[in-house]
Amino acid sequence: MKKILSVIFAAALVASMFVVGAVSTSAADDYTIYFEIPDDATLEKLELESWGSKVSVHAWNDAGNLNGEWPGAEATHVEGNIYSYTWTADSVPTGIIFNNGDNGVQTQNIDGGETVSKTDASKTVKNPAIEWGKLYKATGEGIEDGNGNTNVVVAATDYKTEEPSATESKKEEPSATESKAEPSDDKTVATGDTSAAWVLLAVVAASLGTAVVMTKKASSKD
């Protein structure tokens, strides 16, 4: 019996190693960055025009431009003034610039380097580095780049980490009409992405098969 339990434990350990590896790979492939359009008051202070509602993302690495030529590819609207863009593991950028579609407003480089002023080389600003999953927001400051343009200085902050306010936490009660709604005849159940579940099921099945074979071998030797 001890041999059987040892075999089952070993099989479970192998299965867990596969699952952890799969989860780690999935997390490593998530290269998403968020950006919040600066408000008009901030841009007016920097003597820049209103941003508008378009957000383009110019990105590059050692191989060249990743989203095509300037101004890059259009970002995805998330909510309010927040937009996002996601890269794949085989095209991770080393530098990013958010802009309003080549209409005169853009952020500084997000690359961890420095922006050097054209008119005064002593005025250098450290660019923020790329931090995946972070939200980049305007700090209220600007920096003149090498082309003499004023770029919006941004900084990385956590995204969606604030606690909901008392008002937000109070969910609206369903009305009498809504609460008496008859159940739908539609039996369809949304399952979402089942790929991870199938991988886990396959791993468990393989582990159980291994456990059975090894158990039989162990029993034959007893």
The end-to-end distance, rounded to whole angstroms, is 10 Å
Low-confidence stretches: 7-28, 183-194
From N to C, what is the helix and strand string? HEHEEEEEEEEEEHHH
Total helical elements: 5
What are the main properties of this structure?
5-stranded mixed β-sheet; alpha+beta; 4-stranded antiparallel β-sheet; globular; 5 helices; 31% helix; 222 residues
Give an overview in words.
The protein has helices spanning 2-28, 40-45, 166-169, 176-179, 195-221; strands at 31-36, 56-61, 64-65, 73-74, 76-79, 82-87, 95-99, 114-116, 124-126, 135-144, 150-157. The protein has five helices and eleven strands. α1 runs antiparallel to α5. The protein is α+β, with helices and mostly antiparallel strands and 222 residues long. β5 and β6 form a beta hairpin. The protein starts with a helix and ends with a helix. The protein has a five-stranded mixed beta sheet with strand order 5-6-1-10-11. Strands 2, 3, 4 and 7 form a four-stranded antiparallel beta sheet that branches.
